[in-house]
Write a structure and sequence with these properties.
two-stranded antiparallel ribbon, alpha+beta, globular, about 220 residues, 2 domains, Glutaredoxin, Glutathione S-transferase Yfyf (Class Pi), Chain A, domain 2, four-stranded mixed β-sheet
Length: about 220
């Protein structure tokens, strides 16, 4: 039996089970869908860069000033001694390393999935950004909340609340509604049936992080 994979994640103070980040949830779902045992190492925002450097993880992008940015999710697989960053790269790795059982990318679907994710982000998720950015700090532990606010306000040159002032929120939510309505129309082209990713969610609810944190 394989050893549990380590998933590095960001804890939340006000979310049951601790997991809240949409990006790290992608990897939680992937591990659960494939039925792979894993454990969680929780990292507060100020500790992410040092901890990831220590395990040999690579930065996934750059900060606005050009310096490397270390992000989650990241996994460490003790069975192969590999450290993988970025949810898409992690999914590719899991399929290649553990091909038995369900695949995250069934043959011939990787390009389609990548395209759908890009379209979903630009159409439905991007309009949420100015609404969610100032709210993110409310679910975090104090040290992460302070770090999140300080770094993002430094990067973008304005207060988080300035991304969507109260007077603009109704119009912004309308954009969100329009975006998700467009995505709904795409899904309806399939002619009905189970909601997309429903089977993944169902599989995930039966899988638990071996550390005891719920993975679903």
């Amino acid at each position: 039996m394989s050893l549990p994979i380590t998933l590095f994640d960001i804890p939340a103070a006000k979310v049951k089970g601790g997991a809240w980040s949409p990006n790290t949830w992608k990897t939680r779902y992937a591990l659960g869908f494939k039925g792979l045992p894993f454990k969680t190492v929780w990292l507060e925002y100020p500790d992410i860069e040092a901890a990831l450097k220590q395990v040999g993880a690579k930065p996934t992008t750059n900060k606005p000033d050009g310096t490397p940015l270390y992000t989650l999710p990241v996994i460490h697989d003790p069975n192969t001694k590999q450290v993988i960053c970025d949810s898409f790269a992690i999914a590719e790795y899991l399929d290649a390393t553990y091909p038995n059982g369900p695949l995250l990318f069934p043959k011939g679907t990787k390009a389609l999935q990548a395209s759908f994710e890009s379209a979903l982000t630009s159409t439905a998720l991007s309009p949420l950004f100015p609404l969610l950015l100032p709210a993110s700090g409310y679910v975090l532990n104090p040290s992460s909340a302070v770090y999140f606010r300080q770094t993002r306000e430094s990067w973008y040159g304005k207060k988080l609340e300035e991304f969507c002032p109260d007077a603009e929120k109704a119009a912004q939510w309308k954009k969100v509604e329009e975006g998700f309505s467009a995505v709904t129309s795409w899904v309806k082209l399939n002619g009905g049936g189970a909601f997309v990713i429903a089977d993944t969610c169902q599989q995930q609810t039966t899988t638990r992080d071996v550390t005891g944190s719920s993975a679903g």
